[in-house]
Predict the structure.
Amino acid sequence: MASAIVALAIFAGSAARVLPALLAVTIQQDRGLQPSDVFLPITLGIAVSACASPFAAYSLERWGVRAPLIASLALLALSLASTTYAASAWQLIVAWGLGVGFSGSLSAALLGAMIGSRGGATHCGTRYGLLASMQPLGSAAGLLLASRAANALDWCFVFQAAAVGVLATAIAVVLAPISGRGALLRERKFKRHGAARPKEKNWRFCVLATIFCICGASTSGLIDGQLGMICMGTGLDLTSSADVMAIVVFGGAIGSVVSGHLADRCPARTVLALYFVVRALLLLWLPFTGFSLVELARFGALYGLDAALTFPALVRLMSGNLGARHVGRAMGWMTVMHLGGGAIGSAGIGALGPAAYAVGFAGLGLACLVAAGLVVLLKDARAQGAPSG
């Protein structure tokens, strides 16, 4: 029951958090704003989520799942509702940059890593993949429903309905029998000492942080922050743009489950390097297409599948290189790097504009090749059936 409620919360939160990126152009035109007035809050939201992730990890260890999850959902509902009254750039910065940003710090990646790693690393990839798949499924549902509702009614109704749905989910979390303190993996001896950053301040931690940064720049920065604007900038309407984005996240849902299974049965280092090479090829290929609906949909299906494939293998490598006991706190800092990379990628591609998207895609593609090279420097997690470390 508790796991189902957490999965529902991830699903509802993910469905709501795609609305700013999907409806940014519509809101900009309706309110008479400049493109930077909607672009900046989205990028700021990614950065705020990154900075707040270590504190979110600590809150899960300190208070368990219920209280942080309720606070995150309540803040998200308030931010969505306040968007309908936003008429200037600074109001969107408060609603999206701060509200949606802080609520997004309690991410599916963080919840999945901390909950999935309980009991050792043997099956953490599978557990993580199943829980993390709720995020792309929720995003896909939000994109498909919101785009049609915005066309049939208006964008204000979409944000108000999303706020009500998120608030209802928060009430369900209040009523659900979720364990409190001690529900997540934690070690008492690390609670009193130490900051949120794990003790392993070694080169493996730095390599993993760099990989997460590149991963975030090529996924969160590209898909969450810019893909909707890229689609509409190439002439697609709102519904078609939402369909392309939904194809990406549907591919992500499949990839999360499949990769979680593979990460527990194949060498995580090998499959992760392969994922990054494939992602690089896709990013280098897209600028040579005509950015038509068919080509963008084909890219979205392949890219969404590959983007989600990486995280379960990364969680496995974290367990193998940093120790299963440190996955929770390490994931907080890795999320900082992932979302920080997303903010950098989103800002860079947004600054280049539609005329120079090829440069941004090529740069991210080359960065993914660097990530593939860094992966081989790490050691693999223990094989299935081996005792956890």
